[in-house]
Amino acid sequence: MPSSExxxxxxxxxxxxxxxxxxxQIEREALAIIFGVKKFHQFLFGRRFMxxxxxxxxxxxxxxxxxxxxxxxxxxxxxxxxxxxxQYDIKYRKAxxxxxxxxxxxxxxxxxxxxxxxxxxxxxxxxxxxxxTSAHVKKFTRTDPVMAEVMDIVxxxxxxxxxxxxxxxxxxxxxxxxxxxxxxxxxxVIIPPPLRKQVLEELHSGHCGMVRMKEIARSYFWxxxxxxxxxxxxxxxxACQRMRNMPQLAPLHPWDFPExxxxxxxxxxxxPLEDRMFLVVxxxxxxxxEVAIMRSTSSxxxxxxxxxxxxxxxxxxxxxxxxxxxxxxxxxxxxMEANGIQHIKSAPYHPATNGLAERFVQTMKQALKSxxxxxxxxxRLNTFLLTYRNTPHATTKVAxxxxxxxRQLRTRLDxxxxxxxxxxxxxxxxxxxxxxxxxxxxxxxxxxxVLVRNYRNGPKWVQATVVAQTxxxxxxxxxxxxxxxxxxxDQLLSGTNLSDDSGQMTNPEQLLEAFQGFSHHLSVHCxxxxxxxxxxxxxxxxxxxxxxxxHRRRDLHHHHSDPVTVE
Length: 567
Hints:
RNA-directed DNA polymerase, alpha+beta, Nucleotidyltransferase, domain 5, 5-stranded mixed beta sheet, Endonuclease III, domain 1, single chain, nucleic acid binding, 5-stranded antiparallel beta sheet
């Protein structure tokens, strides 16, 4: 029993046969053990038990931790092997303490009946959950030294020493009472230590939780450290731990914002929606989404779609996904390693780690469901993607297209802008290009005298008169021979100070100003013909040469120069 008290559940005995009566005393003692083990085989096999004998030599022969003596009789060795199939401990007990088994040996049966191999089945019901009553409380209150001393202090009024064990009770001395041999604190019964475990089991039988257990306990009983005992009981209950709620959410740990587009991408699968699955790829920097309709979500098909997307935007540095079977396969991992992509997988059943892709999946599903009946799935998906990419994102406040491509995508809404607005936008864009290139915008008026590039035999530059502007950067000019040429603005030079006879510029500063617009095409400097020194044309007071180097885009080493004399 749990209290180490022995309770008999069955008895068995038999008389010795004629041959067994000739056994030695040690063999007859061993025979009794073998008889008992065989008799109660159904109770003993498969569990550990204790063998008690009043014959000390058997503890060495049948002891599980000592080997079978080599000098033991063959019968004893055979019985020792039989017992080795069981898990047991053998212990010696004196005969005067072994009376519950020794008594049957003093009442022998005169006749031995033949035993039948009929197993007798016994059903036992342990009454361990019997309720604790006031009688039990009274009994154990008197037997417990601390509780008995507290009761004497309360009933007799004597003062006790303030020991550690008495301190919790003596602090409530004026509130303690005794009723029917039970110690009470107010209306709550003080449970003695031997009964506290059973009372806690009864309190926790409904698995009502820690808070409710404390509320119930405060209405019935108390002992020092009751709240801590209830907490330990609730935390140690396996059934309660399995059904616990999710813990409090951890503080948010946002992803580091990538420094450039397409550095980290998040992928996920969406669907099934209209019998289709979708592969979603979202850039963490620009929030630019890519969606591919998937007929199969295998690793091979997923890799094909990712290759197609990567061919347009390049390989990302990191790729974040969940733990889908196609994304953790060996084939997909090999694809990641072969392209130098770090694959980051979220924790299982924790979609918040891949929240960027999960949030876009919800937005896409809602949009596609709302647009059902307005065309095919591909058309509705493309319309949604165009609108999403052109809409400022709630996080970055910038449209994904602007962050990804540095421009807004043209939509049908752009047709609503009037021409003036359109012209203003174009002017603004032109100004941005000019600032970017740091090139001065040049234009000519009709009737203005210019130098035009001559691609025929003769001088490199000839005089002409502007006839009209045919485009933003193209003009028609008329030569002195009344020939009409069409030239780009890069093929025209300002000809304000042109000589009527020689076709040469007479002012170096005007010549330099004419060439300043072509600083990205031409190199201009003056050289003193006497000393050989080089200086800017506007510092020259005498004769200089203008050396013009034209660099072709295809061959930067090719150049030619024409001397121009300026007086």
